[in-house]
Design a protein that fits this description.
- 70% of the residues lie in helices and 9% in strands.
- The protein is mainly α.
- It has one domain: Arc Repressor Mutant, subunit A (Orthogonal Bundle), CATH 1.10.10.
- A three-stranded antiparallel beta sheet has the order 1-3-2.
- It is globular and about 50 Å long.
């Protein structure tokens, strides 16, 4: 049974990314890039450094560097040196990044609603809790 759950989780992740990437093509984004943009948007006025993105998404430095390079090439973000500590570069959304997120927000919510429409609020809460427990156990390993 445990092997089946792992396979199901991989298949769900792969399918979710496939659907998200297909829907994001018109914005010239991937799901991973969108995740970073949403993280930046939700951080508000807090300064975000690359290491925080690495920790939050549990990704390695080269992976995050590649994501940020592509987002910067598309003018969705800028990276600037922190004057207080020149070792850190602050990552910020650009006006273009903000506008793109605003334009696609409703579309993203609609897609999520379709994905989870077969589950009740209680089932969603239970699923979220179970997935969080699995993630915590994996993080301990």
């Amino acid at each position: 049974m445990q092997r089946l759950i792992g396979k199901q989780l991989r298949m769900i992740n792969n399918k979710f990314r496939e659907v998200a990437d297909r829907n994001l093509q018109k914005y010239n984004l991937t799901a991973a890039q969108l995740d970073v943009l949403i993280y930046l948007k939700c951080s508000g006025a807090q300064e975000i450094h690359q290491r925080e993105i690495e920790r939050w998404f549990q990704l390695k430095n080269p992976t995050v560097t590649g994501l940020l390079n592509r987002l910067e090439e598309k003018n969705f973000i800028v990276r600037r040196t922190n004057p207080a500590d020149r070792r850190y570069r602050v990552v910020e959304l650009t006006e273009k990044g903000e506008q793109m997120l605003d334009a696609m927000w409703e579309e993203a919510r609609s897609l999520e609603n379709r994905i989870y429409s077969g589950l009740s609020a209680e089932e969603l809460e239970m699923l979220s809790g179970l997935l969080e427990r699995i993630l915590n156990r994996l993080s301990e390993a």
